[in-house]
Structures are given as C-alpha cells and as structure tokens.
UniProtKB/TrEMBL annotation:
Keywords for this protein: Membrane, Transmembrane, Transmembrane helix
Transmembrane feature ranges: 102-122
Organism: Lentzea guizhouensis
Protein name: Anti-sigma factor
Length: 247
C-alpha cells in the first residue's frame, strides 16, 4: 500500500493480511490501527497465535548443514562475481577512436562497417562473401538461464524442509490454487485456504510439490503431491501427509 493507506475493514480478515501484520511488513500507521482490532477478534487472534507457535517451532529445529552441492554452487557464483569485468565502452566512442587511428572519412567508415557485417553473417568456413547479412534477433529469448534445482527432501525428514517451503508461494507444475485443491481432495484432505507455503521439491529423488497447510493452533500439515498423478479421486497422487507441531 502507498500514499494514503486505508486500514482494511473487518472482521473477517484474510490470513495473508494477518500474516503481513504478524511479520511487520504493513505501514506503521496501518499496523497501529489494525493490530488492536485483530487481537480483539477470536478467530484472527487464533491465527496470530498459530503464527507465533510456528516461529517457535522453527527456531527450535536443529541446525541443518548446507548440502555439498549448494555450497559448491555458492562458491562458484562468488568466484564468478570476483572475476574482473571488461570495461564498458561506448560504441560511438570506439568508432571515433578507430576513425582517428585509420584516418578514414565518414563514408569509408560506413562502407567498412557494412563489409564487416557481411563477413560475420557468413558461417565459419563458408565462401558466400556476397550474401546479405542475416537479420539479427537482439531479444534475449534464446539465452539459457538455469533455474534453481528443487529442494531435495527425504520422506523421513520432511520437517527439515518446512522453513524453506514457508518462504515460497511457488505452485510449480501444479500452477494454480484450484489444481492444488483438486489434488488435496483426491487425498481426502479438506483445505479451502491458501497454503502457508508451497514449493516444488524432490522427495527421495522423485519430482513433487510440497505444501504447508494450517492445522490448528501451533500445528501445520505437510502434504507432498505427485503433480503427474494427483487430482480428484486420485489418492495415489499424495506421496506424504503428516501433521507436526504442538498438540
């Protein structure tokens, strides 16, 4: 929110708004007016208490060593960042310097530039020196950008992934909340609210999507789905389903 922020009306308030209030990301003047109203509402106060309990559970988790492959990628990125970068030179300035060195006039430079373009339009080893230069696509669509690999999780250690998944709202191959709801329905899991966190992972090497769902005061439900098989009436698409936290 920017400018003259308005305090959202309620109750009820959305879980997202309460989470933003709990995280301290709302403008101070909005938070100051909203917090007493939220704390006065029993349902909203229960969500705040659940968020407090969730943070306490995460802080109590044992420290997890960084996987070797992640450490290696970080080291490689830092090394690449430390490499010296060639200075950026203006194209016009480069042409002026070349003009001064060669003593060429403007018309000669244009002709030389055209010839230079033709040479580079011919494939290496080719003899088609008179072939007009091919149109160059300056768009970056052909650039290969390697995506971050999904988080690797073992079924016996689902709790260790909670912190990372809570930071994400990435449906991955499920794409939408509706698709997630259908997959949960197939596993007999009743949930109409947006997940607290969701992210693609690999479960014991198998591609999957993990969702963290609210499960009552101080608890949350961890559900891992196979995006290739899950859906309504397809319980086999639920790879893992467990509840953790204080009872």
């Amino acid at each position: 929110m920017t400018g003259m922020e308005r305090v959202p009306m309620g109750p009820p308030w959305s879980v997202d708004l309460i989470a933003d209030l709990h995280a301290g990301v709302l403008p101070p003047e909005v938070a100051a007016q909203l917090r007493p109203r939220v704390e006065a509402d029993p349902e909203a106060r229960e969500v705040l208490q659940a968020l407090d309990a969730t943070l306490a559970d995460l802080e109590a988790l044992p420290s997890i060593p960084m996987p070797d492959h992640v450490a290696a990628r970080i080291d490689a990125a830092l090394a690449a960042e430390a490499r010296p970068v060639a200075p950026v030179v203006s194209l016009d300035e480069a042409r002026k310097k070349r003009n001064r060195r060669l003593g060429l006039g403007g018309g000669v430079l244009v002709a030389a530039a055209a010839a230079f373009g033709i040479v580079f339009a011919v494939s290496p080893g080719g003899n088609q020196a008179n072939t007009p230069p091919a149109a160059q696509d300056a768009s970056p669509t052909n650039t290969n950008v390697s995506a971050e690999p999904p988080l690797a999780v073992k079924e016996s250690e689902l709790g260790s992934a909670v912190g990372d998944v809570l930071k994400a709202q990435n449906y991955g191959p499920l794409e939408t909340q509706d698709r997630l709801s259908g997959c949960l329905e197939g596993g007999g899991i009743a949930s109409t609210s947006k997940p607290l966190g969701i992210s693609p992972i690999t479960l014991d090497g198998k591609n999957a999507v993990m969702a963290v769902l609210p499960a009552g005061l101080g608890q949350y439900r961890l559900v891992v789905l196979d995006p290739s098989t899950c859906g309504p009436d397809k319980p086999e698409g639920v790879l893992a389903n467990t509840t953790i936290g204080q009872r």
